[in-house]
């Protein structure tokens, strides 16, 4: 435990000095342990485990662009993202680790207590076992506070889900050298620092919001207190939950998305160049190869393919006070690789560069309202990394932008005003809020209105 945030940074700097790691780009054809299937062109690991890179054909998406083809990661196995929580002196603390991922822009980021794929924790890589995994697999000690199968980035994964868990323990927990206990206030401060709290930690922390319906509990009360900074007394919503569930179901019913896997060699608009698989207009992302060496992972060295975005994304909530209560403008978004086709997503979620040259009607709705917002309307604005195990230097600009009373309450059919309290109810169930929305919900939960 740390007495203050400065002490954490001293510890974090020490862990960075203690570890060595190296990540080099290499041609896809030079990947050791991976092969290009001669029939399909798909990238496949020699064990048949981990994941594959295949082609996806998308039609009738209902999005700004109706049809396209792209590479996609196929990883049907479910991993575990788990955080241990324990009270010290009556204050809940979370056990996080500094973890090296090959795609991290800064090497080490704060990760959950356990962040592991099934291939990893079943030993497919032949490396060391995953610390603390026993707290998240049955039979386990401790009290489960949150346990939900949640989606991953559906633009780059096909139907990928991970088990998001929070487990409270009372007994002694040995703390390994790359792990630390942090309380809510310390995490709140660290969330304001770019590229420090990783995506997996943010999505698991969003599950803490669902505790508020439990009987009086110190951990739940603490998180509820954090969220209360953005809630008004009474919490009267524009729409009740039954209406919102009907709106969400109707959006799923309207969904016309048709998708099918195709050989990677047949994906139109993509081709091999300079050892990578790239888009013909050099947009969206590239599939690259990397060579990794590290002294802090279960395996010391390996090769793998990764997805590298060509530009920074924008992920934003438009927020507005309705009857004194903060509401978020959510969209029911067709997700290319989504397990259930449609999920609740932020108001804006895109790579603006992917829409360059397109007319306004084919650009994402409300993008201009976000990018052109005056500084006094921006309540949160930070750049954070996405998952570094599969994505190379993927960063998004996360924003909370408050609009005035003149902004319309009547919005397009795929959008709805939802309170933060209602969003925390939905996060208790899988395939309701997408991973980008869960990250923003975590930022909103720790947001203080008097922050600069």
Automatic annotation (TrEMBL):
Instruction: Report which superkingdom the organism of origin falls in.
Output: Bacteria
> Signal sequence span per UniProt?
none
Residue ranges annotated for the dTDP-4-dehydro-6-deoxy-alpha-D-glucopyranose 2,3-dehydratase domain, each copy included: 6-206, 242-442
Record's protein name: NDP-hexose 2,3-dehydratase
Q: Which organism is it from?
A: Streptomyces virginiae
What does UniProt list as this organism's lineage? Bacteria, Bacillati, Actinomycetota, Actinomycetes, Kitasatosporales
């Amino acid at each position: 435990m740390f007495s203050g945030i400065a002490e954490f940074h001293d510890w974090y700097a020490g862990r960075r000095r203690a570890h060595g790691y190296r990540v080099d780009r290499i041609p896809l054809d030079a990947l050791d342990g991976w092969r290009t299937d001669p029939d399909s062109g798909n990238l496949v690991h020699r064990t048949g485990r981990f994941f594959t890179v295949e082609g996806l054909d998308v039609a009738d998406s209902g999005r700004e662009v109706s049809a396209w083809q792209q590479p996609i990661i196929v990883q049907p196995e479910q991993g575990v993202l788990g955080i241990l929580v324990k009270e010290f002196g009556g204050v809940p603390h979370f056990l996080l680790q500094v973890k090296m991922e090959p795609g991290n822009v800064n090497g080490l980021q704060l990760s959950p207590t356990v962040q592991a794929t099934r291939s990893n924790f079943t030993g497919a890589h032949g490396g060391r076992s995953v610390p603390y995994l026993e707290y998240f697999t049955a039979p386990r000690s401790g009290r489960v506070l949150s346990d939900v199968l949640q989606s991953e980035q559906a633009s780059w994964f096909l139907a990928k889900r991970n088990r998001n868990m929070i487990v409270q323990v009372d007994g002694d927990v040995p703390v390994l050298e790359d792990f630390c206990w942090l309380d809510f206030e310390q995490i709140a401060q660290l969330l304001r620092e770019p590229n420090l709290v990783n995506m997996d930690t943010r999505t698991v922390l969003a599950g803490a919001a669902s505790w508020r319906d439990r009987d009086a509990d110190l951990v739940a009360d603490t998180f509820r207190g954090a969220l209360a900074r953005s809630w008004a007394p009474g919490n009267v919503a524009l729409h009740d939950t039954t209406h919102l569930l009907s709106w969400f179901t109707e959006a799923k019913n309207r969904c016309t998305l048709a998708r099918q896997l195709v050989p990677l060699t047949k994906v139109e608009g993509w081709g091999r160049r300079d050892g990578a698989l790239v888009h013909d207009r050099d947009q969206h992302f590239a599939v690259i190869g990397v060579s990794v060496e590290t002294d802090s992972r279960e395996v010391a060295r390996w090769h793998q393919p990764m997805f590298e975005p060509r530009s920074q994304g924008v992920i934003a909530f438009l927020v507005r006070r309705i009857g004194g209560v903060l509401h978020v403008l959510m969209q029911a978004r067709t997700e290319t690789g989504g397990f259930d086709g449609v999920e609740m997503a932020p108001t804006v979620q895109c790579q603006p560069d992917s829409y360059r040259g397109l007319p306004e009607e084919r650009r994402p709705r409300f993008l201009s309202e976000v990018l052109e917002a005056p500084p006094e309307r921006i309540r949160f604005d930070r750049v954070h990394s996405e998952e570094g195990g599969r994505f190379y230097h993927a960063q998004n600009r996360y924003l909370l932008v408050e609009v005035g009373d003149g902004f319309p309450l009547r919005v397009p059919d795929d959008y709805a005003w939802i309170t933060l309290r209602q969003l925390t109810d939905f996060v208790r169930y899988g395939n309701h809020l997408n991973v980008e929305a869960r990250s923003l919900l975590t930022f909103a939960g720790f947001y203080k209105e008097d922050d600069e």
